[in-house]
Specification:
Length: about 140
């Protein structure tokens, strides 16, 4: 449910999207756009994992779900970049703004409510070398089954 919903959000917004654990994300074939400015770079929304807890009513019927999980919001970078500060200023700080827009995408949908949204900076990830954010989330929905 949350994976398909997130994929729709990501593709509708123009993000590169992929689902799978971090070792599978390493297989991502992301073109090198490291010489372009932030606006021109492809952004990647990489969904890592999720748990799904049913919200049950007094009769055992499902009234909704609580999803807990993680995804990465990333851009390509160079391992030879001058400093982590440069990586932050050229990309990660803008991804923080985009992550707030993504949070609002979930909240703007009927029945979905973001309860937790923790942003953790990550640098030099994967063979393609990517920088960005790991988002740890809790999202509640009252859409039932």
């Amino acid at each position: 449910m949350i994976v398909d919903f997130t994929e729709r959000l990501a593709t509708d917004a123009g993000y590169g999207y992929q689902y799978g654990a971090e070792h599978w994300q390493n297989l991502l074939d992301a073109p090198d756009d490291t010489k372009t400015d932030f606006e021109s770079k492809k952004k990647y929304w990489l969904f890592l994992w999720h748990d799904d807890d049913d919200i049950l009513n007094d009769y055992g019927g499902c009234e909704g779900h609580v999803f807990t999980g993680e995804f990465l919001l990333m851009i390509r970078s160079k391992i030879s970049d001058e400093s982590q500060e440069m990586k932050y200023k050229d990309g990660v700080r803008y991804l923080k703004e985009l992550s707030n827009e993504i949070r609002d995408m979930y909240n703007d949908c009927d029945g979905y409510r973001v309860k937790k949204w923790k942003k953790i900076e990550v640098y030099d990830q994967f063979d393609t070398n990517m920088d960005g954010l790991k988002i740890k989330f809790t999202i509640e929905t009252t859409t039932g089954e």
